[in-house]
Design the sequence.
């Protein structure tokens, strides 16, 4: 594996994550749990480590405490290495008293910290994408073409294209045009012959557009100059990339494997459930390029009289008489007898309750952390440390698409019922 000592990765996670609310009510977007035991931030950080990029900053400004804790407890490099993973939270300085106004503005405000490391190349990544990429290929394309900017692109279908920033290139792969989420005739004008990137004629007909993945390689000095061009420019896609195409050598790097932007509740829900399928689009069972996360040293899960299929069960669970299909059961999940879970994500808990605490809960008629007896849960996301009582039904039988429950104890987004972190759902509740 190559080492890139003069390359620094900057992972953008500074947005409020409003599209992922209420999962982001008490945490930043990169800290949202994924796949039962991981966090979203683990994906780009692991891609960096597996690609020999070990100097990594994560930029954030909302609810960064849990993200900071996760990173400090997870990514510890040798004292003989220059490698690090650190959170850079938005801060007030003499020169800037504002929070991050956009992706480019976040990098602009953090340049003093980045400059101190004297790197010559920046790898700009997003904190809410699910994919496995060897950044060596991405970086080598950048260096071989002597590019100022290289944009990773993915071929996409017509019905998908209008949701992305689209690129057009010449025969050599140099970017000559960019359009942000074009519609109608403007969309048709962005068609590209993708056979020049290695797609077959059949694939080229099916996927005739090049969508920006929102990840870039910048020559450091070129980026500094672009950010100084206009201090009102705050976004890479809308302002920095179009300007760089006009002035600089901007190249495209094609990525053909699985990639998913999981910035919405629907995308997050579907991407998670796909992980539990027999042949998932994204495979955590890859020993050559593993996804790293915090080592928790939890005991093996205990499963008694359960019927579980097409599901993932994380460490430290206690499952008694549970029926589960097409679901994710996260760390320390405690689920009682007779409960049925279908197409749901149970994120688990951050800690165990003691026997004394559980007995005290019973005396107070308070549900324990986890899910009580004889519950029916379908198409739901149960966030960490939630207390679901006995005989609870989370079904959304009326197929409501959007609803804020009383006192914020539950939400429905895109037809999916969400129980936020630390919420309490009393015995016999029906939603």
Sequence:
């Amino acid at each position: 594996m190559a080492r890139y000592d003069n390359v620094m990765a900057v992972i953008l996670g500074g947005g409020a994550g409003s599209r992922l609310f209420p999962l982001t009510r008490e945490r930043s977007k990169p800290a949202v749990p994924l796949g039962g035991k991981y966090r979203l931030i683990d994906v780009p950080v692991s891609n960096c480590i597996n690609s020999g990029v070990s100097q990594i900053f994560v930029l954030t400004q909302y609810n960064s405490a849990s993200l900071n804790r996760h990173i400090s407890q997870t990514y510890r490099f040798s004292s003989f290495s220059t490698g690090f993973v650190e959170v850079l939270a938005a801060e007030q300085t003499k020169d800037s008293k504002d929070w991050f106004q956009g992706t480019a503005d976040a990098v602009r405000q953090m340049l003093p910290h980045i400059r101190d490391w004297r790197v010559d190349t920046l790898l700009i990544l997003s904190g809410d994408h699910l994919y496995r990429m060897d950044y060596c290929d991405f970086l080598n394309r950048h260096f071989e073409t002597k590019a100022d900017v290289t944009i990773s692109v993915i071929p996409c279908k017509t019905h998908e294209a209008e949701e992305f920033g689209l690129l057009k290139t010449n025969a050599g792969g140099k970017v000559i045009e960019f359009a942000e989420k074009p519609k109608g005739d403007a969309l048709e004008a962005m068609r590209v012959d993708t056979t020049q990137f290695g797609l077959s004629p059949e694939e080229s007909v099916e996927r005739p557009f090049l969508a920006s993945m929102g990840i870039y390689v910048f020559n450091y000095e070129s980026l500094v100059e672009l950010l100084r061009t206009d201090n009102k420019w705050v976004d890479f896609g809308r302002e920095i990339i179009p300007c760089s195409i006009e002035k600089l050598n901007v190249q495209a790097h094609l990525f053909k494997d699985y990639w998913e932007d999981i910035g919405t509740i629907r995308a997050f829900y579907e991407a998670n459930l796909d992980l539990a399928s027999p042949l998932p689009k994204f495979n955590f069972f890859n020993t050559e390029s593993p996804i790293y996360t915090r080592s928790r040293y939890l005991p093996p899960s205990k499963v008694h009289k359960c019927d579980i299929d097409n599901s993932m069960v994380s460490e430290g669970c206690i499952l008694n008489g549970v029926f589960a299909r097409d679901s994710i059961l996260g760390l320390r999940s405690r689920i009682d007898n007779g409960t049925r879970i279908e197409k749901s994500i149970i994120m688990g808990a951050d800690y165990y309750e003691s026997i004394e605490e559980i007995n005290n809960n019973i005396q107070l008629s308070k549900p324990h952390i986890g899910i009580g007896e004889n519950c029916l849960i379908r198409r739901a996301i149960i966030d960490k440390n939630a207390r679901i009582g006995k005989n609870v039904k989370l079904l959304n039988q009326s197929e409501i698409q959007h609803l804020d429950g009383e006192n914020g104890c539950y939400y429905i987004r895109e037809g999916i019922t969400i129980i936020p972190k630390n919420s309490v759902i009393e015995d016999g509740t029906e939603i």
